[in-house]
Specification:
single chain, alpha+beta, 5-stranded antiparallel sheet, 4-stranded antiparallel sheet, 8 helices
Length: 242
């Protein structure tokens, strides 16, 4: 009876499980990265990328629970007590992590979205496992997910998105393709209306008319129309696609 209680899982079995879960994690990340960089998926690209992201959000905590369970089963009494002590000491971080999974699962593509909370309003520039970075007029602020959920928040969309826009740009002459998108990005990066702290980003998108899509951040929302006029002077036809 004692033998079956303390040897329900072996160390080789635990290591095999750990390697398998880590490999699958990197495979999912590689699939997500590939789906973001290629345009071969056409109109299904954004949907596929979103689904992979959702799978990753669920897979990461699930894989962690599986590893913890296997670790405890190697020596249920000692490892179980050890894990309980670690859980008590890091309960705040665990709660924050779970809150982050919920927030990110409910709202995909948080980067560049404008967020309004009880104390701050700004643009999300980075998301992590325990919190996010919000760029406001006063500077950068780190906000934990538990604080975000406790105080409440609003994701602003449409015209309230602020200085972040997705532009669709094509050649002025119908039928012509943009052969050198990098050169156009260099022009945009030096435009007087663009926020120079954030380089324009070329988005992977399938466009049959030869146009490209660019995510860009302007210094002020009112500068968008000035930027569109400047792009027209360069011989392109721009439009806002978000």
């Amino acid at each position: 009876m004692e033998s079956s209680l303390f040897n329900q899982f072996s160390w080789p079995g635990f290591l095999t499980l750990a390697v398998g879960l880590v490999l699958l994690y990197f495979i999912l990340h590689a699939a997500k990265s590939l789906s973001q960089r290629t345009s071969a998926l056409g109109r299904f690209q954004s949907t596929i990328t979103h689904r992979i992201q959702q799978v990753l959000l669920i897979y990461e905590p699930l894989a962690g629970l599986m590893l913890i369970g296997a670790f405890v089963m190697v020596n249920p009494v000692f490892h179980g007590l050890l894990f309980a002590l670690l859980l008590l000491g890091s309960f705040t971080h665990v709660k924050n992590y779970i809150s982050g999974r919920i927030v990110q699962f409910e709202h995909s593509h948080l980067i560049d979205k404008r967020l309004k909370t009880k104390d701050y309003q700004g643009i999300i520039v980075q998301t992590g496992r325990l919190g996010l970075q919000l760029e406001t007029s006063e500077g950068l602020h780190n906000i934990s997910y538990t604080t975000l959920q406790a105080n409440g928040y609003t994701l602003l969309s449409g015209e309230d998105v602020g200085g972040v826009f997705q532009l669709r740009i094509k050649k002025e002459k119908a039928g012509e393709r943009i052969n050198n998108p990098v050169q156009l990005l260099d022009l945009l990066a030096t435009a007087p209306y663009v926020d120079w702290n954030h380089k324009p980003e070329l988005l992977p998108a399938f466009e049959s008319d030869g146009s490209i899509q660019v995510r860009i951040r302007v210094q002020e929302e009112s500068h968008l129309y000035d930027l569109l006029e400047l792009i027209k002077e360069w011989g392109f036809t721009p439009s806002v696609s978000n």
